[in-house]
């Protein structure tokens, strides 16, 4: 269970004012002292993540956040980090101190949950210390509350059951490639082993795609691009589909018979993590870019840059070839995502394997709200290599 990647877990975030008992509650739910607890207000500063399993829900991530009523210059920064957690929240717990009751802090959060369509559970904590008035709180927020004591553990088991009940069933797409396959289908996965490949292992999208193929009773044959021709010749029948690293598109397309379906890991992730239709629409902007345009290249992880890095070298080279001159290129990586998106003409995002689906969709929606086209690495590289139509063909009936 602990090997399930964080990005594929349901993200449950705990919000509330300082000293409402958020950290105590996360410790009670996990049965471990993983969050620092103190009577001093503002003990939790940065969000704290804990991977665990809630039966019958399965693997999830609990996120402890700083108080939404934090004060001072540092407090403003902590609140900003707390609100950033909303981008990746699949289910929220709003912790209420019965001694404090409801204020504008909680009401604004409830409004934000509803605006973002985030399911939430209001939780009155500290019932061992005070007798709450749930009816008054329910009237304010128009939602049924759940009563717990993080100290005595009263109501904690029932809260876990409620979490499983309220968790959204669509927090991630059901399949990466499996819904395109029939049992017994053979898939060839082309995985270049170059200087950027991690030593001793495959990258996450490749591993997850292999697992998805196996989960759907199909077969996976994994080869380097240099061995693809031999692999094809060794098969009695053509493969159902070939899935390649987007950087090898050109070489793979040259080797492959036109009758064999072809796509890439990144294009599969465009629908698995995000919204394929919106990301595909972003390709249209590439027909209009010109020298001097401001373009953002965004990645969801941080990694050691190689000599011919895809985000800082290969994609910029292709972009400027399409534009016919120098562009004003900017980069973001990891959890950071620029707030001034409206200043960009186009955003090209990685596949998003390190983000959960809600966070990737949040990034897409932020771009849409600012009227900025957005696409992803795989779609861009297919377009730049002149094979976008072919790379999309296996997914057309799913659009």
UniProtKB/TrEMBL annotation:
Residues 279-394 form the Hydrogen maturase F tetramerization domain. Keywords: GTP-binding, Nucleotide-binding. It comes from the Bacteria. PANTHER family: TRANSLATION INITIATION FACTOR IF-2, TRNA MODIFICATION GTPASE GTPBP3. CDD domains: Era_like. One of its GO terms (cellular component) is cytoplasm. Residues 11-126 form the G domain. Residues 176-274 form the Hydrogen maturase F dimerization domain. One of its GO terms (biological process) is tRNA methylation. This is Iron-only hydrogenase maturation protein HydF. NCBIfam families: GTP_HydF, small_GTP. One of its GO terms (molecular function) is GTP binding.
